[in-house]
Amino acid sequence: MVQATRAVVYSRGQQLQQEIAERGQFFGWQALVLFLLSLALVLLFTRMIIGPVKGIERMINQLGAGKSLDDAALFTGPRELRSVGKRIIWLSERLAWLESQRHQFLRHLSHELKTPLASMREGTELLADRVAGPLTPEQQEIVEILDSSSRNLQS
To answer: In total, how many domains does the chain have?
Structure first.
Protein backbone atom coordinates (compact mmCIF):
# COMPACT_ATOMS: atom_id res chain seq x y z
CA MET A 1 0.00 0.00 0.00
CA VAL A 2 2.82 2.40 0.78
CA GLN A 3 4.34 1.50 -2.53
CA ALA A 4 1.09 2.25 -4.35
CA THR A 5 0.72 5.58 -2.53
CA ARG A 6 4.26 6.54 -3.44
CA ALA A 7 3.60 5.66 -7.06
CA VAL A 8 0.42 7.79 -7.07
CA VAL A 9 2.20 10.72 -5.38
CA TYR A 10 5.15 10.38 -7.77
CA SER A 11 2.84 10.21 -10.76
CA ARG A 12 0.88 13.22 -9.56
CA GLY A 13 4.16 15.11 -8.94
CA GLN A 14 5.27 14.34 -12.50
CA GLN A 15 1.94 15.61 -13.89
CA LEU A 16 2.21 18.81 -11.88
CA GLN A 17 5.78 19.38 -13.02
CA GLN A 18 4.73 18.88 -16.63
CA GLU A 19 1.78 21.29 -16.23
CA ILE A 20 4.07 23.87 -14.62
CA ALA A 21 6.57 23.51 -17.48
CA GLU A 22 3.82 23.85 -20.10
CA ARG A 23 2.30 26.88 -18.37
CA GLY A 24 5.75 28.41 -17.95
CA GLN A 25 6.36 27.99 -21.66
CA PHE A 26 2.91 29.47 -22.42
CA PHE A 27 3.59 32.45 -20.15
CA GLY A 28 7.00 32.86 -21.78
CA TRP A 29 5.37 33.07 -25.22
CA GLN A 30 2.77 35.46 -23.86
CA ALA A 31 5.48 37.67 -22.39
CA LEU A 32 7.37 37.64 -25.70
CA VAL A 33 4.25 38.55 -27.69
CA LEU A 34 3.35 41.31 -25.22
CA PHE A 35 6.90 42.65 -25.36
CA LEU A 36 6.89 42.72 -29.16
CA LEU A 37 3.43 44.30 -29.22
CA SER A 38 4.54 46.92 -26.69
CA LEU A 39 7.66 47.63 -28.72
CA ALA A 40 5.58 48.04 -31.89
CA LEU A 41 3.20 50.41 -30.10
CA VAL A 42 6.08 52.45 -28.68
CA LEU A 43 7.61 52.76 -32.15
CA LEU A 44 4.24 53.68 -33.65
CA PHE A 45 3.49 56.35 -31.05
CA THR A 46 7.03 57.68 -31.25
CA ARG A 47 6.69 58.02 -35.00
CA MET A 48 3.28 59.66 -34.61
CA ILE A 49 4.82 62.29 -32.33
CA ILE A 50 8.27 62.68 -33.88
CA GLY A 51 6.89 63.17 -37.42
CA PRO A 52 4.77 66.21 -36.54
CA VAL A 53 7.53 67.63 -34.33
CA LYS A 54 9.92 67.40 -37.27
CA GLY A 55 7.24 69.09 -39.39
CA ILE A 56 7.10 71.94 -36.90
CA GLU A 57 10.88 72.13 -36.93
CA ARG A 58 10.86 72.38 -40.75
CA MET A 59 8.25 75.13 -40.54
CA ILE A 60 10.38 77.07 -38.06
CA ASN A 61 13.46 76.64 -40.26
CA GLN A 62 11.51 77.88 -43.30
CA LEU A 63 10.25 80.82 -41.29
CA GLY A 64 13.79 81.61 -40.14
CA ALA A 65 15.05 81.41 -43.72
CA GLY A 66 12.36 83.84 -44.84
CA LYS A 67 10.53 81.29 -46.98
CA SER A 68 6.76 81.09 -47.21
CA LEU A 69 4.85 78.34 -45.42
CA ASP A 70 2.50 77.42 -48.28
CA ASP A 71 2.77 73.66 -47.75
CA ALA A 72 2.17 74.07 -44.02
CA ALA A 73 -1.59 73.72 -44.56
CA LEU A 74 -0.95 69.98 -45.00
CA PHE A 75 0.39 69.71 -41.44
CA THR A 76 -0.97 66.71 -39.54
CA GLY A 77 -0.49 65.26 -36.10
CA PRO A 78 -1.97 65.41 -32.62
CA ARG A 79 -4.32 68.32 -31.87
CA GLU A 80 -1.78 70.18 -29.73
CA LEU A 81 0.90 69.99 -32.41
CA ARG A 82 -1.59 71.07 -35.10
CA SER A 83 -2.38 74.04 -32.89
CA VAL A 84 1.32 74.90 -32.63
CA GLY A 85 1.57 74.57 -36.43
CA LYS A 86 -1.34 76.98 -36.90
CA ARG A 87 0.28 79.48 -34.54
CA ILE A 88 3.52 79.25 -36.53
CA ILE A 89 1.58 79.92 -39.73
CA TRP A 90 -0.10 82.88 -38.01
CA LEU A 91 3.32 84.10 -36.89
CA SER A 92 4.62 83.81 -40.45
CA GLU A 93 1.71 85.85 -41.78
CA ARG A 94 2.15 88.44 -39.04
CA LEU A 95 5.88 88.74 -39.77
CA ALA A 96 5.14 89.16 -43.50
CA TRP A 97 2.62 91.90 -42.69
CA LEU A 98 5.08 93.66 -40.37
CA GLU A 99 7.77 93.44 -43.04
CA SER A 100 5.44 95.00 -45.62
CA GLN A 101 4.57 97.75 -43.12
CA ARG A 102 8.27 98.39 -42.56
CA HIS A 103 8.89 98.67 -46.31
CA GLN A 104 5.91 100.98 -46.70
CA PHE A 105 7.15 103.16 -43.82
CA LEU A 106 10.64 103.37 -45.31
CA ARG A 107 9.24 104.30 -48.74
CA HIS A 108 7.08 106.97 -47.14
CA LEU A 109 9.96 108.29 -45.03
CA SER A 110 12.25 108.37 -48.05
CA HIS A 111 9.64 110.28 -50.04
CA GLU A 112 9.05 112.73 -47.19
CA LEU A 113 12.78 113.41 -46.79
CA LYS A 114 13.49 113.97 -50.47
CA THR A 115 11.57 117.27 -50.71
CA PRO A 116 13.27 119.05 -47.78
CA LEU A 117 16.61 117.60 -48.83
CA ALA A 118 16.16 118.93 -52.35
CA SER A 119 15.33 122.36 -50.91
CA MET A 120 18.39 122.19 -48.69
CA ARG A 121 20.62 121.27 -51.63
CA GLU A 122 19.13 124.06 -53.71
CA GLY A 123 19.75 126.57 -50.90
CA THR A 124 23.36 125.49 -50.40
CA GLU A 125 23.99 125.70 -54.15
CA LEU A 126 22.55 129.23 -54.20
CA LEU A 127 24.78 130.20 -51.27
CA ALA A 128 27.80 128.52 -52.92
CA ASP A 129 27.10 130.46 -56.14
CA ARG A 130 27.07 133.64 -54.01
CA VAL A 131 23.60 134.64 -55.21
CA ALA A 132 22.90 136.20 -51.81
CA GLY A 133 26.24 138.00 -51.80
CA PRO A 134 29.82 137.25 -50.89
CA LEU A 135 30.55 134.72 -48.13
CA THR A 136 33.10 134.92 -45.37
CA PRO A 137 35.54 132.00 -45.10
CA GLU A 138 33.58 130.66 -42.12
CA GLN A 139 30.31 130.87 -44.05
CA GLN A 140 31.97 129.18 -47.05
CA GLU A 141 33.06 126.33 -44.77
CA ILE A 142 29.51 125.95 -43.42
CA VAL A 143 28.11 125.91 -46.98
CA GLU A 144 30.60 123.18 -47.94
CA ILE A 145 29.61 121.11 -44.89
CA LEU A 146 25.91 121.54 -45.73
CA ASP A 147 26.54 120.62 -49.37
CA SER A 148 28.57 117.53 -48.45
CA SER A 149 26.04 116.36 -45.86
CA SER A 150 23.06 116.86 -48.16
CA ARG A 151 24.81 114.93 -50.96
CA ASN A 152 25.52 112.06 -48.52
CA LEU A 153 21.89 111.99 -47.41
CA GLN A 154 20.62 112.00 -50.99
CA SER A 155 22.75 109.07 -52.11
So the answer is: 1
